[in-house]
Amino acid sequence: MKYADSGVNIDAATRALARSKEAVKSTWDHRVRNEIGAFGGLYQPDPDGPLLVASVDGVGTKVMIARMAGVYDTVGQDLVNHCVDDILVQGAEPLFFLDYFATSRLQEDVLPAVIGGFAKACRENGCALLGGETAEMPGVYGAGEFDLAGTIVGRVLPEHVIDGRAIRPGDRIWGLPSTGLHTNGYSLARAVLLEKTGFTVADRPAELQGASVGEALLAVHRSYLGDLRAVWSACGREAVHGLAHITGGGFTDNIPRVLPGGLTAVIDPTAWPVPPIFTLIAARGGVDPAEMHRVFNMGIGMVVFAPAGLALDTAAGIAALPIGEVREGSVPVELGFR
Predict the structure, then answer these.
(1) Which fold has domain 172-335?
(2) CA-to-CA distance for 130 and 135, rounded, in angstroms?
C-alpha cells in the first residue's frame, strides 16, 4: 500500500502550496525573517529585539483513533508538543498556545478531557494556554466527530536562530527517538490496521509486545524541548547546526527544509531500533521501505546536525543516536536501503 491509497497525496499538497507562494509572500515586509517552507514563521517586530516564532498544526486523523478508544486527553498533549517541536527547530522556546476545537455537537465529557491534555503539555513545556475557540458545526462534522488545531508563539534571540546555514560536510547526524507515530501517517495506519487487517483498537497483536492497537497508535507525541535545553546548556548553542522535526513527509521531505544546497544527509535506517507499530504497519500493508520513511518518523522524531567531534549522548546526557553524516552531494537525503 501507499499513502495515496488511503486518500492522502503528499505530492498534490506540495504542488498546491507551491502555487500559493506568491499570494503568501505578497503580505510580507522586512519584519518577516524566514522563507516559505520553514517549520515556523519568524517575525521581528523590533529590529533590535528578539524574534517571535509561530506555528499552527493539527493532529490529523489521530482524532478518529481517540474517538474509537474513548481516550481524549492524549490528543491535546500531542498537539501542544507537536507545535513546540516545530518552533524548537528554529531555536525558539514557547511563550503561549491557542487551541481550536470543532465538533458536530459539544459533548461535555470530551472537551474538558481534550483541554486537560492541552493544559498538561503546556505546563510541562512552560508555556501558557492563553485561550481558544470552540465551534459546534452540525452538518460539517458527523455525530460525535471532532477536530483540533493549535497555534503556538515562541521567542528566540537573533543570534540564537537555527536555520541550517551552519550545516557543513562532515557533520554528524543524530536522531532523538520518537514514542510512535506522533501525529502523522494515521490515514495509512488506519487503512492498514483497522480496514485491511481488521484489527480493533482493543486488539493486542503479538507484534506489539503486549500493547493494544489503540495504545500504540495513541502514544503521546514527544516534546524535545528538554533534550535541546540539555544540549544548549552542556555544549552551547553553537553545538546545534540544524534541526529537522520528522513529521508529515518523513525523512525525505523534512530534512531538505533545513539542509543547504549541495549537501546530502546520508542516513542509515539500521542505526536505531524501529518501534513495533511501524514494522506491523509495513508487514500487514505491504508498504515498501521508501514509502514508510516518507510517511512515518520510523522511530526518530527529531534530527540534530552537530559537529563531527561532538557526541551528544555523552556530552549532554540525552538519549541521542548517531544515524548518519553530512556529505557533499546533489540529492538532499540518501537512505541506506536505496
Answers:
(1) Phosphoribosyl-aminoimidazole Synthetase; Chain A, domain 2 (3.90.650)
(2) 17
